[in-house]
Amino acid sequence: MRIPTFTDALQARRVLHDRLTPTPMWSYPGLDAVLGANVHVKHENVQPVGAFKVRGGITLLSSMSEEHRRRGVVSYSTGNHAQSVAYAARIFGVPCCIVMPERANPEKVRAVRALGSDVVLEGATVDECSSVAVRVAGERGMRLVQPDEPELIAGVSTCYMEIFERVPDLDAVVVPVGSGTGAAAACLMAAAMAPRCRVIAVQSEASPAGHESFRQGKCVSHSNRTVAEGLATGRGFVLPQEIVRGKLSDFLLVSDAAIRSAQRLMMTHAHTMAEGAGAAAVAAVLARPDLFADRKIAVVCSGGNASAAEMAEVLVAPSPAESAKKRAVAVEGGLSAEMRVEHA
After folding, report:
1. How far apart are alpha carbons 291 and 168 in whole angstroms?
2. How far is CA 154 from the centre of its chain?
3. Mean pLDDT of all residues in 43-50
4. Domains (ranges, CATH) in the chain?
5. Are 49 and 304 in contact (CB under 8 A)?
6. What is the strand order of the sheet 198-204 is part of?
7. Which of 169-173, 216-220, 311-315 bottoms out in mean pLDDT, i.e. has the lowest?
8. What Gene3D superfamilies does the record point to (predicted)?
9. How far apart are CA 74 and CA 233, in angstroms?
10. Full-model pTM
11. What does the pLDDT read at residue 344?
12. Which one, of 19, 148, 33, 194, lies nearest residue 92 by Cα?
């Protein structure tokens, strides 16, 4: 697959101009105080499907031939990419089928069906769903949409165009990674618009396929156990990995517990309901103050499609202060144990 260009992103912006308005990017003094940095939150959670991926879905379907539109499209997703493709299919009047995991977020399943798309619930993980989608595409004669196509990345790039136009002197932008389209788009736009800005990716340590693919220099599969649906991919994706290689400044891993704490912080200090993936960037800033202290940074709240069960977990998650206190107690306890061994 070809690597999208800055010109592709400009063309995508023209496509999206009459269909999506630029999303807000705000700072919150209370959030800055906790994170120890000047933080600009890009609110992709307010998109019409509650996530950034809608930019890519519309861009892709706008570029499709009339033949492919008549045949329809099929794709696979845990939810946000699903809603993106379904939303775009509704706009262009294209038949659409989405394959989702058997235990997919019921709110996201309902949302996809409400957009008029057929939903096939088959497979335990999104990676198993990919095989089902290939089968369904063959059976129905539909065009298979992969989650990392060039047009999708070009559409997502418009998010980072807006970020760098709004705050051109950023020190860093922190991007959550599932398939990696967001990180790829950020790298492309930073190179063209803000070459001094560091692009830092973040993924759950419970589903580190993207991270491990980046570190090893090739796409690999890995365990996939994260509770953050938008980060739940069990393999690296070729095109995003090709784009970010040599361009990312760093690729961090955070725990699911840290993501839940970050979701709570977003709720209490930024008036924002963020799903797990949408809070991952804040979790990274919390986890690595050495990288971000006193810096001007952007964090991408990539989505806000949290289920009721997820939000219930967020409400009981420890605050950053509580988490820090627990870590301090654990360290103190460990040191005490070591001292007892030394003096025994």
Report:
1. 19
2. 15
3. 97
4. 6-51+150-324 (3.40.50.1100), 54-144 (3.40.50.1100)
5. no
6. 25-26, 38-43, 296-301, 172-176, 198-204, 250-254
7. 311-315
8. 3.40.50.1100
9. 18
10. 0.92
11. 31
12. 19
